[in-house]
Amino acid sequence: MPPRWAFPDPRIDAVRGCAAVERGPLVLCAESTDQDGGDLDDLRVDTGARPRDAASGATVHGRFQPPVGDGAPYAPTEPAREGAEAQPVRLVPYHRWARRGPSTMRVWLPKD
C-alpha cells in the first residue's frame, strides 16, 4: 500500500496544524537518527507533496527551520524562521522506534 497523509480533527489542540503518515495499518514516524543532526522540533513538512514509498517506510519533503530570535520565551511578534531548503525526511514504522539506539521521535509533524 502506498503511504498517505493523515490529518487530525482540528479540535485537538495538541496536534492542530500537523499531519501524520500512514502506510496500510502502520503509522510512520520521523526518528532523530535519520535526520543528519536536524532537530525534530524544527521540522516542517510539505503536505502538498505526496509521501514517497521507501524500503522500510516512506519519505516526505520537509525543512528544518529553527526559530530566529533573541531566545526570550515570549515576544510581541511571532519569531521568524530561517529559510531552509526542502530535503527528503525519512519515516519509519512507529513500532521500530529506538531499535538503533536512543533517539527522539515524532508521529505528528507540523505543516510548513
Automatic annotation (TrEMBL):
It comes from the Bacteria. Residues 41-53 have a biased composition (Basic and acidic residues). Residues 5-110 form the Non-reducing end beta-L-arabinofuranosidase-like GH127 C-terminal domain. This is DUF1680 family protein. InterPro entries: Beta-AFase-like, Beta-AFase-like_GH127_C. Residues 32-87 are annotated as: Disordered.
